[in-house]
Amino acid sequence: FQDLFGVSMVVPLLNLHIKSLGASPTVAGIIGSLYGVMQLFSSTFVGCWSDIVGRQYSLLACILLSALGYFLLGTSTTVFLFAISRVPVGIFKHTLSISKALLSDLVSEQDRPLVIGRFNAASSMGFILGPVVGGYFTELEGGFYKSSFVCASIFILNAGLVWMLPWREENTSSSQNAQGTSSNKITENFSAKAKHDLQFQSAATGSMASHSPFQSSWIQTAVMLKRIKGIAFSDLWDIFLVRLLMSVAILLYYSNFGLALEERFGLKPKFTGYLISYSSTLGALAGFVLEPITRLYQHNTYTILLHSSILTCTLILLYTSALNVWTVILSSTFLSFSTTVGRTCLTDLELSLGGNQARGALLGVGQSVTSVGRIVAPLLSGIAQEFSPCGPPSLGVALALVAILVMSVNKPKYCSIGNVKLKTQ
């Protein structure tokens, strides 16, 4: 909550601040794109790094370096300093994905969707309240700089909380053995690769004790590259493809949301803002209703994901063909729930398919896939808007249908994972 609360105080003000520094829209766009590119390439490496060095060390490093970035942002009086301040944040702002990996280390597979759902709800609440406080600071003299310093202070507070937590080594051998009994070939193969990497890592740890820090860094890099290669050549392409398609579909829905409502129904931006805030609040609350949903589906993550994806596709189609504002409000209401449930189930399914020894790497790859969606979606939205205001969401419907088709074709693999989870529970 504090992480997203601090970030959302600053992010809405970035464009206004860089414009006040004299940057042209093109320069501002380039700096924003570079931040996205850094996130794209760094998320996988940072996630894999957290598997190797441990969650506490990696989480502390990411929090403190992100705090440094926001502190530099609070001292940025030129465009060059603004760009420099975005570098540590672009590379190391992966605190949420590492926290999810930590949660998956601490809880059972049965409780994982519920805990991650509540985690997402807390994050969403932070993102809802943060812009309000940031807007208050903008009315003060030097408001942006004060917001940045407050954000950096929140990150330092988070680092202190992480440092104070009671840490211990988690024994994952029992869950790994349970997973090894699965008849699912993908999970067995990936777990075997992860186990081999773990043995390599153990040997590397012994070597690091007797080598220089420079050599230790090379050993860690070798382990990271080996794990990333294992993920790249595994049979997890379908679940990452589903994540990409669904993320682009949802981004297309929101890409021209305000402009489309103004052109189609003559609604003012103020009403659109209220509607987006309403949807975000419902999305945050959706994280707390996952428990009855998972009980209803007997903890079958695949079926929940499939049905939530079908509902998401239907609601975007309903929005696209809406004849009045009430239909838009109806679709936005239920879309908040379906997208929140879908994101949580996607994360849980990735961890179930990937095994226990590479959770950080898997979540990092998933974050990279989402970053690709954020890069691709604006381009597709611009092209689709050339034909109609409803072009972007219509394209989103098509991509969601492809994602549903991919899940349906690979149903035996997902169902075997679900059956194993039910047996172990």
TrEMBL record:
Keywords: Membrane, Transmembrane, Transmembrane helix, Transport. It is a multi-pass membrane protein. This is MFSD9 protein. It holds the Pfam family MFS_1. One of its GO terms (cellular component) is membrane. InterPro entries: MFS, MFS_dom, MFS_trans_sf, Tet-R_TetA/multi-R_MdtG-like. The keyword Transport applies. The chain crosses the membrane at residues 21-38, 58-84, 119-138, 144-165, 236-254, 274-293, 305-329. It comes from the Eukaryota. It is found in: Membrane. Belongs to the major facilitator superfamily. Residues 1-415 form the Major facilitator superfamily (MFS) profile domain. GO terms for molecular function: transmembrane transporter activity.
